[in-house]
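Hi R.,

Quick one: here's the C2H2-type domain-containing protein sequence you asked about.
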Amino acid sequence: MFKCEQCPSVFAVKRNLVAHQNKHAGVRFPCTACPLTFSYKTGLNKHTKNIHGIVNVPARLRPMTAAPITAQPVPAQQVQIAPQIFVPDAPAGGSNMLTEDEICMNAMDEFEDTG
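And here's the predicted structure, written out as tokens:
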């Protein structure tokens, strides 16, 4: 058991005693979104999540930053739509697919021609 030297509090885990001793030392954890401060970091984390919708992700769980994409000149007559993705700068062509109306009209024409 770990006993606080400044008050009668006793802790089963040393890290809890250390956190408790910070409270006696006047250590406060300020919110970055409002003027509130907290005695314990866990209280700050709960506050930022529940009140501000901010989740504190530990550094070891954060995604690694990607290597910067080197700038490449855009080839003539192409448009860059995303990094490393280029498409021709030309109007979209029409579709060669028939609409339902065109299919029906073709079927009716064929029927009239055979009738």
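The helical segments are 14-24, 41-50, 100-114.

Cheers,
M.
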